[in-house]
Amino acid sequence: xxxxxxxxxxxxxxxxxxxxxxxxxxxxxxxxxxxxxxxxxxxxxxxxxxxxxxxxxxxxxxxxxxxxxxxxxxxxxxxxxxxxxxxxxxxxxxxxxxxxxxxxxxxxxxxxxxxxxxxxxxxxxxxxxxxxx
Amino acid sequence: xxxxxxxxxxxxxxxxxxxxxxxxxxxxxxxxxxxxxxxxxxxxxxxxxxxxxxxxxxxxxxxxxxxxxxxxxxxxxxxxxxxxxxxxxxxxxxxxxxxxxxxxxxxxxxxxxxxxxxxxxxxxxxxxxxxxxxxxxxxxxxxxxxxx
Lengths: 133, 148
Fold this sequence. Notes:
Chain A is of the alpha+beta class. Chain A contains two helices and eight strands, in the order H-E-E-E-E-E-H-E-E-E. Chain B is built from one helix and nine strands. Chain B has one helix spanning 109-112; strands at 24-25, 28-29, 31-39, 53-54, 68-69, 86-93, 104-107, 114-126, 134-146. A seven-stranded antiparallel sheet of chain B has the order 2-1-7-8-9-6-3. In chain B, strands 4-5 form a two-stranded antiparallel ribbon. The longest helix of chain B has 4 residues, at 109-112.
């Protein structure tokens, strides 16, 4: 039904850490962790309506205490998610394809009370999935 | 003093939206993203079948008039004696493979209100990275009915 349902489960299974939609629920969550957010959705349309296979662009932010740990977490997620095809989504529908389209270092995050920043890597995936029309 | 925009009024005319153009050929529905119809003109290039050919030559003096002649070949005829009366190009999503060079019924949908008989002359199918399958097909209409 929603590609995030598959992505959430896949990330937590592969990375062995928590993944949070949109934002971390509170400060001081255990490290490392992942935050994912859908940034946009593009739908191919034909003259009779929706083509039924939209592409969701989803940013996956991998956060860790050390720079190389964030890199390693991102690499684990890349291998678990990138280039997957024909994956069933819990609740219905399928992931048609997944493409990693960008990977970049995020801005180090300094929470109040911490004496060292957290490091992050941002993976940008284009996920094509089926939806009801 | 603030400017107050005038209240909107009804448009003096309306135009027809493209959505709802359900194109079919040989009873196969195409997920068309664009339908282009050129009524009149011949096959292939879309140029007129009666277009004159420029046969000017170097023997004509500078400043003289160009010389034209009719094309040496005629457009193919159907059973009613007409040639190609319109050409249709359809861009579509997915994997339709229209039968080629066989005259079949074509319907360009409720919006365009054009039906008739046509043959597919060529089509292309594109598979690209991170994209759905897309295609384009070209048809030559040999009979055309304009609905109202």
